[in-house]
Amino acid sequence: MATHLTGDTIPDTPMPTLALQGLSTAPTVSPNEANAIAQAWIDAFASAASSASESPSTAASNILSLFNPRDAWWRDLLVLTWDFRTFGGTKKIGDFLEACLPKAEIHGVRMRDGSAKYETPYPDVAWISAFFDFKVREGKEEGIGFGIVRLLPIPKSNGQQGEVDWKAHCVLTTLEGHSSFPEKVAPFRDTNPKHGNWVANRERETSFADADADPNAPPKPHPNGSPQVLIIGAGQSGLGVAARLKALGVSSVIVEKNGRVGDNWRVRYEALCLHAPVWFDHMPYLPFPSTWPMYTPSLKLANWLEFYADALELNVWTSSNITSLKQDPETAKWTVTINKDGVQRRLVVNHVVFGAGAGSDKPQIPEYPGRDEFKGEMFHSTQYKRASDHTGKKVVVVGSCTSAHDICVDYYQHGIEVTMVQRGSTCVQSAERLWHGLSQAFYPEDAPSPDIGDRVAASFPQYMATGLNKRVTSQIAELDKDLIESLHKVGFRTNLGLGDTGVSLLAANRLGGFYLDNGGSKLVAEGKIKLKSDGKIKSYTPRGLLFENGSELEADVIVWATGIGSPLDNVKRLCEPSVLGQLKAFWGVNKEGEVNGAWRDMGPKGMWYMTGSLALCRFHSLHVALQIKAIEEGFFGERYSLEE
After folding, report:
1. Range list of β-strands (E), 51-106
2. Which SUPFAM superfamilies match (predicted)?
């Protein structure tokens, strides 16, 4: 059966339909008209913003007059607030503008050529979207901003029937760079030839050989002493932010406990394959080749990450473990002791970036009575390697989301009897249909890069887009109807996500709870992967698991695919109580729909957490790097943060 998830309050924001605006049909708009309408709105916005230093309230009022009074949204990523904020409604937008416009001094506003488009994503929805570039004041520096606006048709007051005004429904503004510190990419790449000294320079840069290991000696300054930033973990999170920092001229070193870059993917189960298509997963500065398969095998990704670190000349210390991480309460600098290949190293850095993954490095197995009685083999899904290790045995996999399905499929394909135990309902959507729709909307395969797609996707903030997500989820559910009904027939319980919005809010709130089907659901529906979903687990038995309804499930092997724990476990393992007491909430969304804690400071000065899918890491690695660069250069502003 399909169930409704409870426990998270999700605002029921309607889609901005024509009927909601008071229109019965969509207006006819030519490309030239769309361009002129968008240009007029952006010109009016620029004029109003330019008066903010003289009269903030007047400027805010004039900008608000450009918005739909009944349904208005503004999402800002750092450029005006130095934070991640979403403002819903003209009152909140007005307060934000009055507070932030005078300091921002928006100027140089220009619509991006060819960006204006009239779009009708549904027969009952129409808007004009356009991109614009602008600059803001960052102390003595200039910040480079990028914006997206979507304009809705609104009936003209006292106008003839069919005449409309175009008012903003949603605006995104995001920080793209600092004018005085451009990323060192073409045309700002390094132009100095390295005749014979490149290897020596790289060895010196990577080793930080002059960083004094004597804890009683003062730290030596960069460049040969300590880096400015220490990054924990050489997965896509750590590598992405290291690449961004290097391009901005900020020195960093990545500490990786494994022996090779990419081992965080190599140590996972061999059958693992990404569930997102390749054009969604490109990393900063270096996209995957056009010959790359649509869905990347984990071992192939691991090798790519190793190549990426080498090609972008990132400083990585492998086989290295942090043995001490302490912050000086007076200077806020971090003293880090690292066991590198058996040698103790000490670094004193300004920033620590956790790139240690989206979950705990030691996820826990749920506690049930009788654990010591079970005679078989038992482990967490993060320890699973390959099905052939259990040939001829009965396997039970507890869990019904992505890892559970992947592992069960692997066992089935190796001829091993496997049973999936479903404890709660799962949001199931076919991967092909989800990505087909998402690719069309944000990430077309033929796009030269995913950068614009990242920004367009970000311009649909979570709580603004609930109506849209509900409609998309409903459409996918209808297309998946036969698949879902076949699952229900065998007792597999499904849901449509939080507030019936699909997978996005589940990922942002719970880091899981869904399965993007690429074949596993059919095997469950056909009974090739056995299913037990008729009762709660009560305890272990010597032969398997006992359920509250009195039934028993025999197993030689139990795999617990029950979640990966909290990312904060990685922080708590290293930091002192004085630091932990300063931590902000992490992950899950706040009342504005923004993810807590990630991609901006975590509370303690100079502590950051970089995490997420490859797409989120690609997009937000720039935000993390730009914040660190601004702090290092002394022009980081005051955050206009949400008051909880």
Report:
1. 73-77, 84-88
2. FAD/NAD(P)-binding domain (SSF51905)
